[in-house]
Amino acid sequence: MKIAVIGADGQLGTDICAALDKNNDEVIRLTIEDIDISDIDSVSGVLTEAKPEFVINTAAFHDLEKCEDEPVKAFQVNALGARNAALVCNDINALFIHISTDYVFDGKKRAPYIETDKPMPLNVYGNTKLSGEHFVEAIANKYYILRVSGIYGETPCIGKKGMSFVKLMLKLSKERDEVRVVDNEVLTPTSTVEISNQIVEMLNKGAQYGLYHATAEGSCSWYEFAKEIFDITKPNIKFNKAAPGEFAVKVNRPEYSVLENTFLKDQGINIMRHWKEGLRTYLTGELS
């Protein structure tokens, strides 16, 4: 299969490319230097020339605070970027795979969200990503939308100063005597490798077009996530829960954003492991 990956040098894009290489696909790696997702002429020119059978879009403006300060830019990248790619995929008859987020929900359900639950974003980032979903659903003839949650990987995250939560915890555990983490937000940490393997599984099995949740199994708070990291890595530090309000939060975010992979399971193609298994595999490589 000939597959173009937009955002190929990003945290998720890098591992998607690696998984596709392992699957013996022909991979066209597109970075911000190669394509401007917010510019329809750039998207059309690059993809029309490349003629991929599939296009995977991992590009996003996902710094929460910057999205609040620059909502127009966030909409151009997260919403209009998805629209541009969907339009061009129709022109070249390519299947479009678009990465979205758990932040389209407000967290008030307090139970795992399924694909048919009504989104209700709390911030600019979530709203622009939801707008991108709507553009894809309204325009694309062939598409997968994948909502992911709490992703981490080996490659630095371009939009978040190069630091995933796992890498931040590892860094702090080497620099400080004590680490304190909030316990009031619940999510599903998911390795970029696991997401990448799931995408390959969907392509190989010919998954039905539509919207999917694609996260690891289980859930935890940020504190529980950090505790598991430290249980595996065993740093010589004090580790405690942060007091309520200890860390100022400038942007509203859901306190519960766990996703259930209902549509993947309905088709028998869910290969996501429990988040603790994915984390242990990741850290084993990190520490070797």
3D structure, described in words:
It is a single chain. The protein is α/β, with parallel strands linked by helices and 288 residues long. Helices cover 42% and strands 16% of the residues. It contains 10 helices and 12 strands. It has helices at 11-22, 40-50, 64-69, 71-92, 124-139, 165-175, 192-205, 222-233, 262-266, 275-287, and strands at 2-6, 26-30, 54-57, 95-101, 143-148, 151-152, 178-181, 186-187, 190-191, 210-213, 220-221, 238-241. The chain has a 6-stranded parallel beta sheet, sandwiched between helices. The longest helix is centred in the N-terminal third of the chain and has 22 residues, at 71-92.
Q: What is the secondary structure topology, with strand pairs?
A:
Elements: E1 2-6, H1 11-22, E2 26-30, H2 40-50, E3 54-57, H3 64-69, H4 71-92, E4 95-101, H5 124-139, E5 143-148, E6 151-152, H6 165-175, E7 178-181, E8 186-187, E9 190-191, H7 192-205, E10 210-213, E11 220-221, H8 222-233, E12 238-241, H9 262-266, H10 275-287
Parallel strand pairs: 1-2, 1-3, 3-4, 4-5, 5-10, 6-9, 7-12
Antiparallel strand pairs: 8-11
Helix pairs in contact: 1-7, 2-4, 4-5, 6-8, 8-10
